[in-house]
Amino acid sequence: MWTPLESHRSSRSHRRPKPWWLLAILLGIATPLWAQQLPEPGTWRSVADLNQSRAGHTATLLANGTVLVAGGKDGSGHALANAEIFDPSTGQYTSISAVMPTPVWGHTATLLADGAVLIAGGRDDSGLPVASAQLFDPSSGAFTSVGSLTTPRGAHTATPLRNGRILIAGGSDGRNALASLEIYDPATRTFSSAPGTMLVPRESHTATSLANGRVLIAGGSNASGALDAAELYDPAGGTITAAGPLNAPRTLASAALLLDGTVLVAGGQATGNVDLNSAEVYDAATNTFTLLPALMTTARSAHTGVRLPHNGKVLLVGGTSAGQLVPTAEVYDPVTSSFRQVGSPIIARQLFSTNSFAEPDLGILLMSGGLDSAQSPLASSEVFYYPTLRSDKPDYSPGDVVTLMGEGWRPNEAISINIHESSGDPDTKLTATADAHGAFTNSQFGVNSSDSGVRFLATAMGQASGWTAQTTFTDGNVKAMAAPSGTTFTLTKSTFSSNATCSGTPNSTTTVTGVNSTSGNTTGGVNPGES
User: Which of 96, 191, 276, 424 is the 20 to 30 A CA-CA neighbour of 496?
Assistant: First the structure.
């Protein structure tokens, strides 16, 4: 690293706009006394209710920053066809006039590259799996049917692939766990059976997209009980190969991709309905699972386990333990490889939805609906606050200054920052101070010409709150660009004698022009020694 001029060494206040409903909490407008201060990291606050009590629904963050809440079941157990939108700028839900062609609950809802949402499978009023598929178009606010799955399925997974297609895996057809896989192609709006099938039929499993583009499918259950089997789907050849196995059979577990590319598989249920408090980590480099020495603070299954954006921790919330709702929440901290309890949700629930928000509403996770302890659908929603850390760019060139930004920290607390380099160079230690709104900016770190191809891991720690947050950035060998469908683009390749920096007089230059005719973005890049 290199250090910029002395005048830039101190941290600068970075204040982001707050949505009015959060400002109302901060200013104490029509709020109780306990809400009249900046939310403490790791705590929950109530927000507006859903317009419809629902459980088994989905919540999908749309490209415009709002959230689509769709389907679910009501207090009579009937599948719902209605949907609503949560707008973080107002803190309110608005019902959508359009309804889904097929009422469903327990479905999947996946954001596509074009901004539409694919709603696939799920269950009907009788609890039987359906084969229906429907699209929500945010630009028109309309739902349309889009063919059918090749097989009715519930308790399945839907995972986006790098090519824009969606992998639908496993689930139940109402009688048996499924081994079948199918692919949804947004270009043709059709489903087709994948060339192969899973090695083991399974439902209530996890499916995680890895950094190498493959999908890790782990655990779940079938007629034999909870499974320890895991497998990898490779989109390049449409092949399935064995992975793992897990150290403990587990169904209804959670899985989250960590910043270092490993996968945390936590909790779940063993055969005999025994809830688990163990967790393990999958390493793609060795294709193995390692049981963590640390245990979760509470055994739980059918919970949510999600990596917090711009933080790196995994929040584990909700679910059941020994047949009772779990009222607590906890986080897994990769910095310490440990679990610790955080603030408890206001209402214990299961079959709820969660989602985080895009900028400027960072550091906020929304939890909505679900079933309460009386098995009644809920309309209530609440938000979880956590601190964030991010860089102003994901990739830098030699000589660039890296600006690190944090939000959601305890006001005025001292922040220590550690930057670790994959090259093995010594770590860099920096400091910052959060302002009165819990935000900070630090521009003390610069990228060296010798850092080509290096991956950086930045860790911030609040000295008063004890919270940590992590982010990554690179000085990549390949600089990528994207051209939206239908646009004309020009690529100029300049080759240099040295690949350390793209400077001086190139040995050769080649320019090409084309039009992107694909359904999504076309990406390209340059190799070492080119620019």
Answer: 424
Q: In what order do the strands lie in the sheet with 92-95?
A: 58-61, 67-70, 83-87, 92-95
Return the H-helix or E-strand segment holding 22: helix 20-27
Domain with CATH 2.60.40.10 in the chain: 6-15+389-475
- Asked if residues 41 and 383 have their Cβ atoms less than 8 Å apart, the reply is no
Neighbours of 146 (CB within 10 A): 19
First CA to last CA across the chain, in angstroms? 22
DSSP states of 288-333 as a string? EEEE-SS--SS--BS-EEEEPTTT--EEEE--EETTEE---EEEEE
Q: Counting runs of H as helices and runs of E as strands, what totals does the chain give?
A: 1, 45
- Structure token digits, residue 264: 């945390």
How large is the average pLDDT for residues 416-424? 96
Rounded to whole angstroms, the Cα distance separating 300 from 302 reads 7
Check: CB of residue 491 under 8 Å from CB of residue 482. no
CATH (residue range 6-15+389-475): 2.60.40.10
Alpha-carbon distance of 42 to 515, in angstroms, equals 48
Across-strand partners of 510?
493
pLDDT tier at 358, thresholds 50, 70, 90: confident
Q: How many of the other CB atoms lie within 10 Å of CB of 230?
A: 26
Contact (Cβ atoms closer than 8 angstroms) between residue 392 and residue 403: yes
470-479 pLDDT, tens per residue? 999 999 765 5
CA atoms of 290 and 283, how far apart (whole Å): 8
- Residue 7: Cβ within 10 Å count: 6
Closest CA to 386 of 41, 43, 15, 47: 41
H or E element that contains 144? strand 142-148
For residue 245, say if its preceding peptide bond is cis, omega within 30 degrees of 0.
Answer: yes
Residue 397: closest CA among 356, 359, 333, 453: 453
The whole model's pTM is what? Answer: 0.86
Q: Which residue stretches of 147-283 are H helix? A: none
